[in-house]
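seq:
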Amino acid sequence: MTKLSKMDYLVKIQSELKAPKNQFNNFGKYKYRSAEDILEALKPLLLKYNCYVTITEKTNEIGGELVLTSKATISNGESSIFVEAQAGINPNRKGMDIAQSFGSSSSYAKKYALANLFLLDDSHDVDSNKVNEPIAKPSNYKSKPKDMPGFKGTLAALDNISIKPKMSTDIYNAMLEYINIGKSDIVASKMDNYTMNKKQKDTLTRMIKENNN
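struct:
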């Protein structure tokens, strides 16, 4: 282990840290990194340079709004430096209970505090070609058999049936987020691409209607 003086250890870590964007937003079609991805990539470098990172959070009211502040601090025991990032908290956020609302704000603030401390670019890697891609057929999909008398009408009807993927929690949450930031028209155009339960459909439909009023 190497112990560097002053802020040399931070400069070294900033230049060596590689935190790939391992997460993929299925709805928005972009890659991103989470706070957990940053911390996982950071651990070997903290051990290498004999320093540590702490993350603390606090909430307070600013201008009548509840705000969560995340503070990321790096230290070698002799010197330290910190960066703070903030995220608003809406306890009445549509589609989320209060715990989910706090958790979402915490994840956001923590990620940006770490990204700013270690100079990580956090722009989305958008794969624009995939946005308008047709939904792929399942791997076990079989094309219709040929030369089967008596089945022509049935097979023709089956050809008109689209196989829709099930609405995952990740995609559902992404749709909620899009509605909350004013992009309900995008959600409305994509809803028919997925099979969802009644609660998901009713919630999204209600939120889109409220957002457009």
